[in-house]
């Protein structure tokens, strides 16, 4: 897959990825991909990331049920950041964050403290119970 050669992978073979909601423009999350994750994302039309903490591929939604359909994949001008245009799906389609919120970017700097400014839509314990 020649198109993967254009990506500037870091020294660990990863590239940062931003997932942006297609309809609202909201930035939902930041993650990492390796070559296999990006290739699978393009082939499946669903987001597949690389979990650095687990050291393996992570098909978004495999545990939470909150999948991401990928509409478009873009590469920035330096070829070192990927932007996904996605639609979030699942039991509660507005949840992308493992904290049960719409977006992982729910904290805002107010004065000298980070404040949670968006609500928890679903208790994370109930999302990941198995």
Fold and architecture overview:
With 130 residues, this protein is mainly β. The chain has a single domain, classed as Phosphoribosyl-AMP cyclohydrolase (Ubiquitin-like (UB roll)), CATH 3.10.20. It is built from 2 helices and 8 strands. A hairpin with a 6-residue loop joins β5 and β6. The longest helix has 10 residues. The radius of gyration is 15 Å and the shape is globular. The relative contact order is 0.18. The mean pLDDT is 92.
Short description:
The protein has 130 residues and is mainly beta. Helix content is 12%, strand content 35%.
Low-pLDDT residue intervals, each spanning 5 or more residues: none
Query: Count of DSSP helices?
Result: 2
CATH fold node name: Ubiquitin-like (UB roll)
Number of DSSP strand runs? 8
Distance between the termini: 37 Å
Identify the strand order in the major beta sheet.
2-1-6-5
Tally of individual domains: 1
Q: Percent helix among the residues?
A: 10-25%
| Beta strand % | 25-35%
CATH superfamily: Phosphoribosyl-AMP cyclohydrolase
The CATH architecture would be Roll
Structural class: mainly beta
Shape: globular
Mean pLDDT: 92
EC number: 3.5.4.19
Domain Phosphoribosyl-AMP cyclohydrolase: 29-106
Binding site for Mg(2+): 76, 78, 80
Pfam families: PRA-CH (PF01502)
Task: Throw out a few tags for this protein.
single chain; 130 residues; mainly beta; Ubiquitin-like (UB roll); 4-stranded mixed β-sheet; two-stranded antiparallel ribbon; 12% helix; histidine biosynthesis; Phosphoribosyl-AMP cyclohydrolase; zinc ion binding; hydrolase
């Amino acid at each position: 897959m020649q198109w993967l050669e254009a990506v500037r992978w870091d020294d660990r073979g990863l590239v940062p990825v931003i997932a942006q909601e297609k309809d609202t423009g909201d930035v939902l999350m930041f993650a990492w991909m390796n070559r296999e994750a990006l290739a699978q994302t393009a082939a499946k039309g669903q987001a597949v990331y690389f979990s650095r903490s687990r050291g393996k591929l992570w098909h978004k939604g495999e545990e939470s049920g909150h999948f991401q359909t990928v509409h478009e994949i873009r590469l920035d001008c330096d070829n070192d950041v990927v932007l996904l245009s996605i639609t979030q799906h699942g039991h509660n389609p507005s949840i992308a964050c493992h904290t049960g919120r719409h977006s992982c970017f729910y904290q805002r700097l107010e004065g000298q403290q980070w404040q949670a400014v968006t609500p928890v839509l679903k208790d994370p314990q109930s999302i990941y119970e198995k």
